Amino acid sequence: MNPPSNRNPASMKISFYLLFALLIPLAQAQQLPPDVLVKSITEEVVAILKKDKDIQAGDSKKAAELIETKIVPHFNFIRMTRLAMGRSWQKQLAAEFKTLLVRTYSTALSNYRDQQIDYKPLRAKPDDTEVTVRSDVKPSGSSQPVSIDYEMEKTPDGWKVYDVKVGGVSLVTTYRDTFASEVREHGVDGLIKSLVTKNRQGERTKSGKT
Q1: Regarding beta strands 158-166 and 146-155, do their DSSP bridges make them parallel or antiparallel, or are they unpaired?
Q2: Closest C-alpha to 97, from 21, 105, 207
Q3: CB 98 within 8 A of CB 202
Q4: Residue 14 has what pLDDT?
Q5: What pLDDT, on the 0 to 100 scale, is given for residue 2?
């Protein structure tokens, strides 16, 4: 059985730019409005990346550790999995989905180079519980910015991201299509097994095992 691939251009594009949505400081998560929060996240990430030579050199393990501490507590993987899977979602699937994303984005993080990021004014009412934070990222050596929209929800634990759209392409929708194809062929258990296999392969690669 072949694990579901995330090597298609849309998902790889999302994988690279989604790292800007991920790092949410715990102490600030319950205090800042969503747009200010995203900007502060990005500034912190950029500062870390500019100083950390190991991550710049491709240390995916260190990048993964950074994601685990700064990102995972502030991403709603349960809702993401529900959106991607509908009634077929399971907690085990959400856990493997999270591991897949962490592994993918640790690689993207280690490949980071200077980008210019512009934030759009937040269009939201004070009592809104779901908002879209919009930004444009201009890649190094390119004159064409890439739009990144963060779909965020207000929770008792602060604002959390439950989807990201890169150039109009939704992360959830991208994985929904991939997962649906796998479920049609092998069922939900087959999808979980595929993700487990893929994640273990990633762990062996990081540890230098074959």
Answers
A1: antiparallel
A2: 105
A3: no
A4: 47
A5: 44
Q: Where is 150: in which H helix or E strand?
A: strand 146-155
What sections of the chain are H helices per DSSP?
Answer: 9-17, 19-22, 26-29, 34-51, 53-56, 60-70, 77-85, 91-110, 171-207
Determine whether 166 is exposed, middle or buried from the number of CB atoms within 10 Å of its CB (0-12, 13-18, 19+).
Answer: buried
Asked if residues 196 and 96 have their Cβ atoms less than 8 Å apart, the reply is yes
- pLDDT of 210 reads 42
Q: Spell 83-104 as b/e; 16+ CB within 10 A means b.
A: bbbeeebeeebbbbbbbbbbbb
Look up residue 75 and give its DSSP letter: B
Please say whether the beta carbons of 31 and 83 come within 8 A. Answer: no
- Nearest-angstrom CA–CA distance, 177 and 29: 31
Q: Which amino acid is at 115?
A: Q
Q: Which residue has the tokens 């260190």?
A: 62
pTM score: 0.74
* Grouped pLDDT means (10 residues each) for the chain, 210 residues: 44 48 42 79 74 83 77 79 84 86 72 76 92 85 80 88 86 88 91 88 56
CA–CA dist 69, 71 (Å, integer):
6
